[in-house]
Amino acid sequence: AGVNVERKIKALEVVRNKFLLGAYTALRVSDFNYLRDVHIDGDYFRVTTQKTGAHVVIPIHPVIRRIIDSGFDISTPITDQKINEHIKEVARMAGITQLVEGTKYIQHRAVVGFFPKCDLITTHTARRSAATNMYKAGIPTISIMRITGHTTEKSFMKYIKITSEENAELMARNAFFMG
Fold first, then answer.
1. Which residues is 113 bridged to in the sheet?
2. Residue ranges of E strands in 77-153
3. How far apart are CA 150 and CA 3, in angstroms?
4. Residue 116, strand partner residues
5. pTM for this one?
6. Could you read off the pLDDT of 15-39 as tens digits, one per residue?
7. What separation in angstroms does the CA of 42 have from each of 39, 51, 179?
8. pLDDT single digits (tens) 143-167
9. Contact at 8 Å (CB) between 83 and 15?
10. Cα separation of 75 and 18, whole Å?
């Protein structure tokens, strides 16, 4: 039994680290899940994306640097399906369980309703969160779009999740409003 528990803990650590790769790069799962040491160039990831063939260069966030420096092998294999399955467990363990309105796919059918937030988290959540957090941190939209592959600001703005209050906070930090 102890070996199974250790194996499960190791699998959940891999999933958490893979998810964080997505959450700090804004790459699609098809890209962040297949990163290798060869993609690391000093303080940057250099990746040719699978979907669009775009060559992107992304600074390595300190959180990701710590994960890599801890000995985590970014090339550890795990299927996209397993990441999506296990990330829900990780989120539940982290207490991300509040009920939220959303769409959940049950037997390949979209069901809209209220679900524990952990049950709605997927690898795509990491990508959207990265793009949103970069935007909220003041990284220029065009720079983020170079990573996400969005070709218009209109499509990008639909992609990120930002409330009216968050938008007002961003504006308040701008020199225009600071006098």
1. 102
2. 99-106, 109-116
3. 45
4. 99
5. 0.90
6. 999 999 999 999 999 999 999 999 9
7. 10, 25, 39
8. 999 999 999 999 999 889 888 999 8
9. yes
10. 9
